[in-house]
Amino acid sequence: MRLLQIPSIDEYSDNVVAGWELANTPEAGSRYEFAYQLVWDGKEPDTNQFRVVSTTVHANPRANETRFTVEYAKPESAETIPVDELRPYVAANQGGQVKDIQFAPTERGWLVSFTIFDPTPPQTIDVSCVILRRDRFCSEKWLYLLILNAFTGRN
């Protein structure tokens, strides 16, 4: 089984597909039978961690930058976490540079804002963000595939 993510010009296109990848190429006219089972886990997500509730994206193609704001909701546990124990961790690969990280409390939780700069567009950059508590994960991991279009420079 192979899962593919196909580049798309917007986040609304259905661009994730799964399919079988055979070890041996079938001969023309031959027959193959497949059986599979889909299983879902009935467990709810961990509600004792910060959960992503919204993402805002602002592209600035002239500057090869994209600004993100990720909103995390507070955990359902009643524990109050001291602010000085929390910090965001943002990562970008394929040469993407993380700039201007801001971390601010809200009534609902926390906002993490940051800019991804692409020094060599166009390309695809994997971006991730988590909130750490004393260097341990205490949030969901937010993931975003930033695809910069070769013709417009926009994602």
Distance between the termini: 29 Å
CATH hierarchy, class of the domain at 44-147: Mainly Beta
Largest sheet: 4 strands, antiparallel
How big a fraction of the residues is strand? over 45%
Q: From the helix content, strand content and strand pairing, which structural class follows? A: mainly beta
Describe what you observe in this structure.
By secondary structure, this protein is mostly beta strands. The chain has a domain at about 45-145: Immunoglobulin-like (Sandwich), CATH 2.60.40.10. It is about 0% helix and about 45% strand. It is built from no helices and ten strands. The strands form three sheets. The protein has a four-stranded antiparallel sheet with strand order 3-4-7-6, with no helix packed on it. Strand 3 and strand 4 (about 65-75) form a beta hairpin. It is flat.
